[in-house]
Specification:
The structure is a single chain. Strand 11 and strand 12 form a beta hairpin. This protein has six helices and 20 strands. The protein is of the alpha+beta class. The chain is elongated. The strands form ten sheets. Strands 1-2 form a two-stranded antiparallel sheet.
Amino acid sequence: MVFSCKFSLMAPHMVCCLLATIFLTTAPVSSLEIAMTAVAAPGEITTVDQSNSTSRMFSLSDNIKRITRSAKELYGLAYNAISSTGVSNKVLGLKCEKASDCSSVEFSLCADGMCSCDANHTISNVQTDKCLKGVNLGEDCQEDVQCQKYEVGSVCMAFKCVCSVNYSEKEGKCVPNPKIGSSCVGNVDCHHIPFVECIDNVCACPDAMLPGKHANVCLTVASPDGRAPCEEDIQCSAQYGDKSRCILGFCECDHSYHAANGKCIPDLKLGAECSRRSDCVVSRHTEEGNIRDCFNNTCTCATGYKSANEEDHCVEAGNGYQLHASLAWLTCVFVVPYLF
C-alpha cells in the first residue's frame, strides 16, 4: 500500500507512535521465528539454524535502530517547523483578524478576534480542531457536546441524543428529575425514585422510610437488634439516637456507648449502681465480650475476672496471678543467689 503523510502537521509523539506501529506490523514474522528457534530442543538446532537465527536477530536489531533514528529525525523536523513559524497546527481558540485565518477548519469563523465554530457547530472534545454540528434530542450524534449544544442535560448514547440519568424528557426538553422534597402534581412526577410518592404535592418517602442525604433515595430505619446493616448515618440515628453512626455498613454506637433495647446508652463504670446485668454491658471498643455483672446492685467484673490496676477495665483474674508467679520464679533463680 502506498500512502503519503505530512509528518510536519503531526504532533511529534504521534510520529513516534506511527513509526512504532509500522514496525510492529512488519516485524511479527521474524520475531515469531526467533522465538520458535529459541524454544526448540537443543538437539534439533543445527549450525544453519543458529546462523539463520543470528542473522534474523541482527536484522531485527538494525530495524529497531533505523526506526529509532528516523523517529528522532522526524521529531526534530516537526519541532523545528513549529519553532520557525511560531505557531502550532491548532487553529480554534487562536487570535485572528479575518475569516481566512481560520479557514483551515471547516465550519469555523473569526469572531471577536478569535477562531471559533459558527453558531450551528461546537468544538469537538476528541479532536480539538474540529467543529461538530449541534443536534437535538433523538438525532444522530458522535459526542456529548453535540447534544449539549442545545440541551444541557443531554448526552450522546448509542449515537443518539438522549436525556442523561438525572433528567427526564418532557415536550422535547431535558428537565431535571425532582428530588425528595420537590413539588409535584402526581406520583408520575416522582416515579424515578423507588418508593417515593407525591404526598400533598410534595415528593416524599412513605412512612417508616427516610430520605437519604442526597434526597435521591428512600432508606429503611435500622433494626433494633444491634449492629444492624445500614447505608447512611440517618438510618442508625433514627433508631439508636444521635450517638450512633453507620460504619462499614453496620450501625455502631460511639465510644463509651453501647446498644441496649434499641438505643445507644452510656457505659456504666465499675462500681456504678445497677438493677440487672445488662445495665453493666460496655462498648465493644472498651472490652471484648460480656465480662461484667451486676452484684448487689453494683457493676462489678464477672466471675473469673477482676479490675485492672483500679482502672475501669476487667481482665482475667488468672493473668495477674500468673504474672506474679513468673516474676517470683525469675527473682529466685537469677537474683537471690547473688545476694548470699
